[in-house]
Amino acid sequence: MNNLVVGIKKFFTNKNTVTVVGVLIAIIILYVGYNMRINQAITPVTVPYALEDINPRTQITEDMIGTMEIPQSMVNNNIITNSADVIDMYASGDSIIPEGSLFYKRTVVSADQLPGSIILDYPKGYVLYNLDVDMASTYSNSIYPGNYIDIYLKVQNVSDNQTGTVTDDRIMVGKLLENVKVLAVYDSNGNNVFANVEEKTEPAQIIFAVPEEYHILLRKASFLRAYESEIIPVPTAESLEDEPGDVTLSSTDLQNFINNVTAMTEQDIAATQNQ
Predict the structure, then answer these.
(1) Cβ distance 75 to 43 under 8 Å?
(2) pLDDT mean across residues, the chain
(3) What is the CA radius of gyration of the chain?
(4) pTM value?
(5) How far apart are CA 69 and CA 253, in angstroms?
(6) pLDDT one-digit tens code per residue, 44-89
(7) 83 with 103: CB under 8 angstroms?
(8) Which residue has the higher pLDDT, 239 or 143?
(9) Of 51, 94, 129, 151, which residue has the fewest beta carbons closer than 10 angstroms?
(10) Do residues 60 and 89 make contact, with C-beta atoms less than 8 angstroms apart?
């Protein structure tokens, strides 16, 4: 037994033996590591791909998606590997996803990331309206998409109802519409103000939609230059309600004033008669 122990000690203390053993161990480690890397690289990964050409701004449905296996080495951070991350998303506004193509993160966006996505989310029969705003009129950029606002109208140089005299200091202010849902807030370059909260961008327009008759009323009000009209958004807590109310007219006096100082179309007259 002692002879065996002595022999082992001599074996491992021999410099040549240690060198050979070290080289063998290194070769084994390199071989094992190389094979692991090779197997990892060639192991197939299942990824989604387009079964047909998908045009820009098109919603991607389940029947547009197939799956295929590709080597792991072909997968990078830009490739979407899960079908669930593609279904119900949209092809970006500047990209066509060709038939047979894999899905890349830069070409697949959600509805709210889609340029002009507001056209997808307002009731039938409503019309979009873009209201010019600034930091002050949005309460230091506190009006967000999904919030509800009331629309106030301010006009001045209003004639006295009794004398008909126009004086520069007569001002009329009142609530014109209520329960208006904000769809988007854009800066002066047409970018979503809240797309990147780290960038401090100032609001230039808020977008909302109202029934056609109220849309015409707002357009008329915005053109009352002789009366120095101003359309004022005022945030409300309506979005906190379980069932927010519909857009409604708040003041027939303001409606009548706007119509009286502007030309009436046949559509306006018909709408007035039906009220």
Answers:
(1) no
(2) 81
(3) 34
(4) 0.58
(5) 68
(6) 888 999 999 998 878 899 999 999 988 877 888 889 989 999 998 8
(7) no
(8) 143
(9) 94
(10) yes
The pLDDT of residue 162:
43
Contact assessment for residue 43 and residue 71, using Cβ atoms and an 8 Å cutoff: yes
Single-letter code of the amino acid located at 134: D
| Residues 210, 70: Cα–Cα separation, whole Å | 50
Q: Give a three-class secondary structure readout of the chain.
A: CHHHHHHHHHHHHCHHHHHHHHHHHHHHHHHHHHHHHHHHHHCEEEEEEECCCECCCCECCHHHEEEEEEEHHHCCCCECCCHHHCCCCEECCCCCECCCCECEHHHEECHHHCCCHHHHCCCCCEEEEEEECCCCCCCCCCCCCCCEEEEEEEEECCECCCCCCECCCCEEEEEEEEEEEEEEEECCCCCECCCCCCCCCCCCEEEEEEEHHHHHHHHHHHCCHHHCCEEEEEECCHHHCCCCCCCEECCHHHHHHHHHCCCCCHHHHHHHHHC
Q: Measured between alpha carbons, how far is residue 41 from residues 25, 74, 102 in Å?
A: 24, 8, 18
Q: Which of 144, 171, 151, 147 is nearest to 159 (CA)?
A: 171
Answer yes or no: are the C-beta atoms of 236 and 148 closer than 8 Å. yes
Separation in Å, CA 80 to CA 40, 50, 120, 189, 199: 19, 12, 25, 30, 27
Closest CA to 275 of 253, 252, 245: 252
List the beta bridge partners of residue 148: 181
Q: What is the rounded (10 degree) CA torsion for 30, 33, 36, 37?
A: -90
Name 4's bridge partners.
Answer: none
- Residue 55 in tokens: 């045009």
